[in-house]
Amino acid sequence: MTGKITVVGSGYVGLVAAACLAELGHSVICVDNDLNRVATLQAGGVPIHEQFLPELLQRHRGKRLEFSSSLPDAVAASSVIFIAVGTPPKDNGEADLSYVESVAREIAQNLNGYKVIVEKSTVPVYTNEWIRQVLNLTAGPHADFDVVSNPEFLREGTAVTDFLYPDRIVVGADSERAAELLKGVYAPITNGSYYQNIDRIPEPDSALIPPPLILTTAKSAELIKHASNAFLALKISFINAVANICEGVGADIQQVAKGMGSDSRIGPQFLRAGLGYGGSCFPKDVAAFHAVARECGYEFNLLEEVMRINEDQRTRFLKKIRTALWTLKGKKLGVLGLAFKGKTDDIRESPAIGLIQQLLAEGAHVIAYDPAAMPRTREVLQDKITYADSPYDVADGADALLILTDWEEFAKLDLKHVHKLLRYRIILDGRNLYCKDEMEQYGFIYVSVGRQPVPLRQLARVG
Ligand code: UDX
């Protein structure tokens, strides 16, 4: 029997993990020291935009899932404690682990019997050892606990299904007892019993094959997380670099990516060229992995190049905007997309926000629409830009339309209508959401990534 589970932190990772663990049948206490957030969650609020999360919170809140601001009470009641607090980047790229440390200290002060402390936040290798040391120093040498690394591989927007239908579960445990407890936590997934449940959250397209639980040492688990994210970021920067060559030689990146991705050794995912990666994970994790490598005496120069290509991708797109519009001062630019990717309201390290700031600095007026990320953007950009109610309001009278986030609805615009609304029929698509032929048919100037631009045509067959 697993007993109660505490999840410390109710951010993207903590809240999703808490809700999903309750969905798997566990009794979960989700703790946060932000009293307002706890009150919101207790009152039925859903503070983040995440598919299926409202359903899960509704299903389990007040039953198997409770919210609390008291870490001591939660620790005393639980046998497994997940740490899922933030690890924001410091100026030098290293992760700031002060939140993790203070949570570890508070856990240590409230140990009352054997507990497994699980690091779920993305942390550098050795964090496991540090947590162990903090617990030993605070709780004394006889404290009965284990520290386990159980990295998450959740993507924002699909985090709930990623948790319930993972490719693999990694448990880095240095003791048999802790490993057994964690196996019990994930048993409904690994033995497939959750997948028999008729009320289950719908599975993604893949078949319902229970995933493997990969048991490793704590250090290996910590490295698996960093290396996986760095490798995916590398894949994106690689395809973006190839896209730039496609532009130079007149090839088409979508054809190239399809041809490459059909090799099962390469695989089709994470080969979408565009404005580069953003979000709360990849930029931070690649920088942190680079810093960790340096600390242990290895210059991981490849990662520097991954970061450089990623930055360059935005600069190249800005140049394309300048080339299409000549000067930017006083131009009215319609922007579709603010979030760092579709299906999320997160704007952390969003290429869209960085680009908008550059456009504003050059004197352009920006009118923008995003299905979920406008409230968060308002907190950062305030009224430096105009917020629209729909993609068509954005296009109305704009000198050009910029597509900066891959929301599905942006790929299905009524192009005839957009054509009528735009002042100049120029579309710059940083996410390659449209087929060039379609754009040509409507008579747009269409500039995308890794494909030849569609030039101006005198006779547009519209109507
Ligand atoms: C990522 C990892 O996928 C996840 O395993 C980890 O736990 C957290 O970081 P997330 O940041 O939510 O998840 O988003 P993801 O879907 O992986 O995309 C990351 C960035 O890469 C986005 O900016 C996205 O637009 C970009 N991307 C992704 C591309 O530019 N091209 C691609 O082919 C795929």
- Unreliable spans are 459-463
Q: Which small molecules are bound?
A: uridine-5'-diphosphate-xylopyranose
How many domains? Answer: 3
Tell me the name of the CATH class of the largest domain.
Alpha Beta
Description:
The protein has 463 residues and is of the alpha/beta class. The chain has 3 domains: 213 residues, NAD(P)-binding Rossmann-like Domain (Rossmann fold); 73 residues, Rossmann fold; 134 residues, NAD(P)-binding Rossmann-like Domain (Rossmann fold, 3-Layer(aba) Sandwich), CATH 3.40.50.720. Helices cover 43% and strands 13% of the residues. The chain contains 17 helices and 14 strands. The strands form 3 sheets. The protein has a 6-stranded parallel sheet, with helices on both faces. Strands 11-10-9-12-13-14 form a 6-stranded parallel sheet, sandwiched between helices. A two-stranded parallel sheet has the order 7-8. The longest helix has 32 residues. The radius of gyration is 24 Å and the shape is elongated. The termini are far apart. The C terminus is likely disordered. The structure holds uridine-5'-diphosphate-xylopyranose. Uridine-5'-diphosphate-xylopyranose binds next to helix 9.
List the helices and strands and how they pair.
Elements: E1 4-8, H1 12-23, E2 28-31, H2 35-42, H3 53-60, E3 65-68, H4 71-77, E4 78-83, H5 98-108, E5 115-119, H6 127-139, E6 145-149, H7 159-164, E7 169-172, H8 176-190, E8 213-216, H9 218-249, H10 253-261, H11 282-295, H12 301-325, E9 332-336, H13 351-361, E10 365-369, H14 374-381, E11 386-387, H15 391-395, E12 400-403, H16 415-421, E13 426-429, H17 436-442, E14 445-447
Parallel strand pairs: 1-2, 1-4, 2-3, 4-5, 5-6, 7-8, 9-10, 9-12, 10-11, 12-13, 13-14
Helix pairs in contact: 1-3, 5-6, 9-11, 9-12, 11-12
The protein binds uridine-5'-diphosphate-xylopyranose.
Uridine-5'-diphosphate-xylopyranose (UDX) is lined by residues 152-156, 229, 232, 236, 270-272, 274, 277-279, 281-282, 340-341.
